[in-house]
Specification:
This protein has 561 residues and is an alpha+beta fold. The protein folds into 6 domains: 74 residues, Nucleic acid-binding proteins (OB fold (Dihydrolipoamide Acetyltransferase, E2P), Beta Barrel); 69 residues, Beta Barrel (OB fold (Dihydrolipoamide Acetyltransferase, E2P)); 74 residues, Beta Barrel (OB fold (Dihydrolipoamide Acetyltransferase, E2P)), CATH 2.40.50; 69 residues, OB fold (Dihydrolipoamide Acetyltransferase, E2P) (Beta Barrel), CATH 2.40.50; 84 residues, OB fold (Dihydrolipoamide Acetyltransferase, E2P), CATH 2.40.50; 107 residues, OB fold (Dihydrolipoamide Acetyltransferase, E2P). The protein contains 7 helices and 30 strands. The strands form 6 sheets. The protein has a 5-stranded mixed barrel. A 5-stranded antiparallel sheet has the order 8-7-6-9-10. A 5-stranded mixed beta barrel has the order 11-12-13-15-14. A hairpin with a 4-residue loop joins β19 and β20. The longest helix is centred in the C-terminal third of the chain and has 27 residues. The radius of gyration is 54 Å and the shape is rod-shaped.
């Protein structure tokens, strides 16, 4: 239960307090007040607090926690030390004055910061921690450094700045809200502007300067020359092939570049690295004459060929057709790979367009020449059927070389509609070499040439005027086809039939006819039922053959239309 002070007790306490104040005034001591900063003397250091004499009737007390301990845990404060402290609260009822050194330091620091803000606005501080939106900086009090104000270009790696000391520009200050906003970018931009002015005064086209790679794009790299950025285009980086600027440079690299062009008004600078060395193409004709054989490295592969680097900045193309003597319908990657060292022959040099034609196959013996020497026309050989097509079959002759037996060279008498009716892949066939075309790389074979030509035999056995009996194989609007020998037919044109009466004949009928003409080369036979003299037979044979050819051509033309 609390006992209320009587008026008499209250009056007595008031008189004692006023007497104490008067004693201090008489002694020349100004009474301390809450909220002010005063000087005090340490009179005792206790485990949990420091007792300070601030010239007041009661003792001042500071928490030990306001002092930073050393490595051994001792605080750096001793009896007799003079401290500047903040009067936090006067608690007469307890006979003490609560003090704060931290608040005093903070208030004094605020005074200094405000003074700096009024003058240069530049202050040093240490980055303390990463916070939302930026960094916390210790400048005696905590200040905020937005992420956008750390560098000229925003950076994501804010953790790398923790613990570093920098100069900052105070861009916002509010003591009432305990708010300070800093900028390092503002100082960097001021410094960069100064360096830019100096750089613009001293650089000229052709100068070689050093810079730092600041940014890399698909088309080049931006180089910080110290106050101004220059563009190093990908085409000016190397005389050789470069797929991407990052293949040659990394952000942060120091590079030596040449000033190619410079616009002082627009502050644009074009840079080059390859221009520091001579253009290798100036000596290409001397170093790589047509016909020479050299080595190079495959640097790129396309569907149409492979690019081979002969030296830095000098490349040539090996077209897919120049990769192998025998391989066909292949991709260049089936022959070589990027990074391979290959031997090539220089086929052509185009200095104007900076193009070099190369060949891999020309560095090796031509198997087609060897084939022409080893297999002259008339040579009989055996080979395996590699493939069957509509127009014939391909037979393996040597490694990489196939010979074609055209459908017309399979048999003298065609008794099939498609080569697949007679041959399968893997079959072994015997054929005779008819031609080896080295220039066009064609090897021609024939099976029928192994046998006697039945057309020539017919010409011997049935000369013009000879009479024989044959069966009607087919009937057309212009005549009858008569079987002369198995598989061989002759034409009995309607003009060679007395009365031109085709209706009197049917397929399968046997008729007696006479030979007009045999053409083994064209494989055509003309027949007649008329009795003619030798001269008439010769003339009629030519006429019938011509008429037949005309009608066949007309029939084909009508079908096409």
């Amino acid at each position: 239960m609390t006992t209320m002070a009587t008026p008499e007790v209250y009056q007595k306490n008031l008189e004692q307090f006023e007497a104490a104040l008067k004693a201090q005034e008489d002694a020349g001591i100004q009474p301390v007040q809450e909220g002010e900063i005063v000087n005090g003397t340490v009179i005792e250091v206790q485990p949990r607090r420091v007792i300070v004499d601030v010239g007041y009737k009661a003792e001042g007390v500071l928490p030990v926690t306001e002092f930073t301990p050393d490595k051994e845990g001792n605080i750096n404060v001793h009896e007799g030390d003079t401290l500047e402290v903040y009067v936090d609260r006067i608690a007469d009822e307890f006979g003490i004055v609560l003090l704060s050194k931290e608040k005093a330091d903070r208030l004094r620091k605020w005074d200094e910061i405000e003074a700096v803000a009024r003058e240069s606005g530049v202050i040093r501080g240490t980055v303390a921690a990463k916070v939302k939106g930026g960094l916390s900086v210790d400048i005696g009090v905590r200040a905020f450094l937005p992420g956008s104000q750390v560098e000229i270009r925003p950076t994501r790696a804010l953790e790398d700045y923790i613990g570093e000391e920098y100069e900052f520009k105070i861009i916002k200050l509010n003591r009432f809200r305990n708010n300070i906003v800093l900028s390092r970018r503002a100082l960097l931009e001021e410094e960069r502007a100064k360096l830019r002015e100096e750089l613009l005064e001293r650089i000229n086209v052709g100068d070689v300067v050093k810079g730092i790679v600041k940014n890399i794009t698909d088309y080049g790299a931006f180089i910080d020359l110290g106050g101004i950025d220059g563009l190093l285009h990908i085409t000016d980086m190397s005389w050789g092939r470069l797929n991407h600027p990052s293949d040659m440079l990394e952000i942060g690299d120091e590079v030596e570049v040449m000033i190619l062009s410079f616009d002082r008004e627009r502050e644009r600078v074009s840079l080059g690295i390859k221009q520091k060395t001579p253009d290798p193409w100036t000596q290409v004709e001397e170093k790589y004459p047509e016909g020479s054989i050299v080595e190079g490295k495959v640097v790129s592969i396309a569907d149409y060929g492979a690019f081979v680097e002969l030296e830095e900045g000098v490349e040539g193309l090996v077209h897919v057709s120049e990769m192998s003597w025998t391989e066909r319908n292949i991709h260049p990657s089936d022959i070589t790979k990027v990074g391979d060292t290959v031997k090539v022959r220089v086929q052509s040099v185009d200095m104007e367009n900076r193009r070099i034609g190369l060949s891999i196959r020309e560095t090796m013996p031509n198997p087609w020449v060897e084939a022409a020497e080893n297999f002259p026309p008339g040579t009989v050989l055996e080979g395996e059927v590699r493939s069957v097509t509509d127009f014939g079959i391909f037979v393996g002759v040597t490694e990489g070389i196939d010979g074609l037996i055209h459908i017309s060279d399979i048999a003298w008498v065609k008794d099939f509609n498609h080569p697949s009716e007679k041959f399968n892949v893997g079959d072994t066939v015997r054929a005779v070499v008819t031609q080896v075309d080295v220039d066009n790389e064609r090897f021609s074979l024939s099976i029928k040439s192994l046998e006697e030509n039945p057309w020539e035999k017919i010409a011997e056995e049935l000369p013009p005027g000879a009479e024989f009996t044959g069966k009607i194989v087919s009937k057309t609007e212009f005549g009858l086809f008569i079987e002369v020998r198995p598989g061989i037919e002759g034409l009995l044109h309607r003009s060679e039939i007395p009365g031109e009466d085709l209706d009197a004949f049917n397929e399968g009928d046997e008729v007696t006819v006479r030979m007009l003409r045999v053409s083994p080369q064209d494989q055509k036979i003309s027949l007649t039922m008329r009795n003619l003299s030798a001269d008439e037979i010769e003339r009629a044979g030519v006429t019938v053959q011509s008429e037949l050819e005309r009608q066949l051509k007309e029939k084909v033309l009508n079908q096409d239309l």
